[in-house]
Each structure stands twice: as structure tokens, then as C-alpha cells.
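## Example record

The block below lists the input lines for one assembly entry, exactly as stored, with component labels intact.
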Amino acid sequence: GSTLQAAATEKGRYFGTAIAVNKLSDSTYTTIANREFNMITAENEMKIDALEPNQNQFNWTNGDRVVSWARSNGKEVRGHTLAWHSQQPGWMQNMSGTALRNAMLNHVTQVATHYRGQIHSWDVVNEAFQDGSSGARRDSNLQRTGNDWIEAAFRAARAADPSAKLCYNDYNTDDWTHAKTQAVYNLVRDFKARGVPIDCVGLQSHFNAQSPVPSNYQTTLSSFAALGVDVQITELDIEGSGSAQADNYRRVVEACLAVSRCTGISVWGVRDTDSWRASGTPLLFDGNGNKKAAYTSTLNALNGG
Ligand code: G3I
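Predicted C-alpha cells for the full assembly:
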């Protein structure tokens, strides 16, 4: 294939990107996005604060814009994200207990219902575990409603949209030896054993010098897959430049292609200047929209094997 999406499709995978609604009027941006990617994640527009700014008053405008841009261009959509400790609207931040649990479940139900039939995969729950060596759940208002809040969210999502794949998504879960990786693994194993609906694990895979592509990355992918879930690389970006960055992108693609249940890769933005890493250069296109060495190595790796 001569584009990322074409090459990935030949390998039975997708290749996606995050899209920001306020850039859909930038033709350099949309030209690259349309040409290269066939899976779209809204970078911010489908988060809780964006979709439910006031309790039970939903604002679908920007989320719908991203979804309709994607679908009208023949692309699929990853939904991001139904339940998260972060990016909660003020009213939700101030809630607790049963009221919060019910508000969270109502959000999951309303949003998954609104987008029913249009979502390839939902990040049902995002970033619910702590960093560091504890392997514990992250403290949050949602966690304080009871340890079963995650499975409650997954059951509500399944009921609202039975056709979407339901994913648990997190960062720093790339290194197989990391306590957080093991904690997510145990969650998925428990869900599969008890019949809690879960179809996929999203590895965000934000890499930099402090958190490089681990040597055991493929082991992480294959270990999750062996639990009977798909694995998706959901928010890939890799700090650096030149051949070192290109080599790291190649390693990520090769690891995914080596695991049959690694079904797709999404990068977290189009050009370096679109990245959430304000001063970084972690993506595949430079600020002028030119292909970087990392683009070429990614495409070659997708075409390889
Ligand atoms: O749109 C407002 C703008 O009106 C305002 O002037 C400006 C002032 O700060 O803020 C703008 O909103 C910002 C928004 O991005 C759009 O640029 C928010 O402050 C800022 O918090 C928000 O950051 C996003 C971040 O998630 C929030 O949690 C990043 O764009 C987005 O890339 C990042 O994505 C996350 C994933 O959802 C989850 N995994 C990690 C990943 C990277 O942090």
C-alpha cells in the first residue's frame, strides 16, 4: 500500500488518528487525514465534559461533526471515552456516591445510545489504575462509588450499543513487567472469567525518553490477546526525531503485526504541531504536513513481512 490505511488494510488492520474538530477547516490537515487514516478518534469532542456540560443536557454538536466527517469519508470511529476520572464537567466533579454512579451510568447509556451503530470500538473506561508499583485502582470520585464501577460501565455500554467493541484503555501499560500492566491484565482476565462484557484493550502507547518502547512490548500485546480480547494501539506518539524515532515506530508496527489480535494502530494527531505534547515532535508529519522519516518507516513496516 502507498498510504498508511492502504498498507494496514492489506494486513487486516486499520490505521487511525485523533482528529480535532477545530482543524476540520484546515485543508492541509484534512487532506492528510483523509488520505492516510481510516479510523478516527475525536481528540476531545466525545469526552464527558464536551458531551454533557450540564447534567442530562447533552451537546452533540462537535462530537457529531467529527463522526460525520469520518463516516462521510468512509472511515470508522473509535469512541473516546465514556467514563474517566478526568475531563469531567463541573457538576460531575462535585458528585459522589449513588448519585454519581447513576449519573455516570446515565452518561454511558445516553452517549452509547446516541452513537449506536456508528462506533467500531468504545473506550468505555479510561485510565482507572494508578501509576507506580502498587497496581491499585486510581483514587477518584468514580472509584469511591465502589470497585465495581468499571464493570457497571461496561454492562451499560453493551446494553446501549451491542455492536460496538468495548475496550478498557490506559497508558503506561506497555511494559509487561509494569505493575499497572499486570493490574489491567488481571482486570481483563477477571472480566472474561465472570462474563463481564469486554472485547478489547487499548494501549495508549505515549512514548518518550522516560517511557520508551519497551523491549517486551510484543509480549504485552500477545499476553492480552491470549485472554481472548483484541488489542488496539490507541494513542501512539513517540518523542524524538530522525532515525531513532523512525526505528521506534517500526518496532511498534512490527509488534502489532506479529500479534494476530492486534487489530489496529492509531496515532494521537496528524502533524507534530497538532500534538498535545506542545513542544514535541512525536508524530508522523511535520508542521508543514511533510512526511517524516517516522512516516516512511511506519509505512515500510506495514508493507513488510
Ligand atoms: O478549547 C479550549 C480553549 O478554548 C481554551 O482557550 C484553552 C485554554 O487552556 O483550552 C482549550 O481546551 C483544551 C483542549 O485540550 C483543546 O485544546 C484543554 O484545556 C486541554 O486540557 C485539552 O487537552 C487534551 C487532554 O487530553 C485533556 O485531558 C488534549 O488535547 C488531548 O490530546 C489529551 O488526550 C489524552 C487522551 O484523552 C487520554 N490519554 C492521554 C491523552 C494525552 O494527554
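The mean pLDDT is 98. Residues 43-44, 86-87, 171, 204, 235, 276 surround G3I (CB under 6 Å).
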